[in-house]
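Go through this one:
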Amino acid sequence: MTFRVSKGVQPTATDAELVEAIVNGNEQAFAVLYDRYADRVYSFCLTLTRDRGLAEDVVSDTFVAAWQNMSALRDPSAVRAFLFRIARNRVARVGERTARQVPVDPEGSVLASLAAEVDVADGVSEKSEGGSLRDESFELVWAAAEGLNENERAVLELSVRQGLEGEELAKSMGVTRHNATVLTSRMRANLERSISALYLVRQDNPRCEEFRQVTTTYEGVFTPVWRKRIGRHIDQCAYCEGRSRSTALSTFAASPLAAAPVELRAKILKRATGLVRAFIAGSRQLEAKAKAAATGPVDAEA
C-alpha cells in the first residue's frame, strides 16, 4: 500500500472505487467504507459471539486487517464478502471464549418498539395492544438461534438478514458455492427444529409425560444438544408434534441490524491509519539506512 494525501471521496462511490482509493492510502475512502459496512459487520459478529464487548473487538480487528490487506483483494467489488470473511476468521480464533456466552438481544430495548412495526411470521397472531406476540416471535427466533452451531449462525446472519447468496455467501464463509448451499439448507432445517423445540419447552404443564422426562434437566439454556434431544422426541410423539409450531425465517430477516457503537468508529480509524503511518515511517528509516550504507564505501574511497 502506498500513502498519499487523502483526496475527497464521495459517499456514493462504488465499493471498487473505495478499494482502489484505500490501496492508494486514502484515509477518507476507508472512513466511507467503514460507515457503509460497520453495522453489518457488527451485527454479524454479535450474532456469532453473543457478546457486545467481544463483537466490538472483532469489528476493530476486522477493519484494521482489511485496511492492511486491501491490496490482496483480487476483486475490488467483493469487499463486503472480504470483510465478512475476515470477521469470520477472527471469531474462529477467539475459540472457547465464544463457546458459551450469555445470549444477546441485538437491539436490546429497541426490539419491542420495532417489533410492533413489522409483520410477524405465519402462524403467529398479533395483539391489538402492545404487540406482545410480535415481540415474543422475535425473541423466540433469536433464542432458537442458540440451538445452531457457529457455522449455522453465520449462515443465518449472512443469508437471511444480510441478504448474501451464491458466490458472495460462499466467499464470506470461505467455502465452495456447493458447500454454502448445503450449509444454508441445513441451517434452515435446524432453525425450524430449534424454534419448534424451544416453543414447546416453554409451554406450561405439557400433558406428555415422556416430554417431561426428556426435559427434566433442562435449566433454560438452549443449545444444539437440547435442539437435537427435544427434536427427536417431537418426531416420535404425535401429541408434541401437533403442539409445536414453526416460525418462518422472515421473522429473523425482519429484525434490524445492530448499530455499531459510535465511539468505535474513531477508535478504528485512528488505529488503522496510525499503523500505516508507523509502517511508512519505518520504511523511510530503512531506506535512509540503506542509502547511507550504499554511499559509505564510496565516500571512504574518495
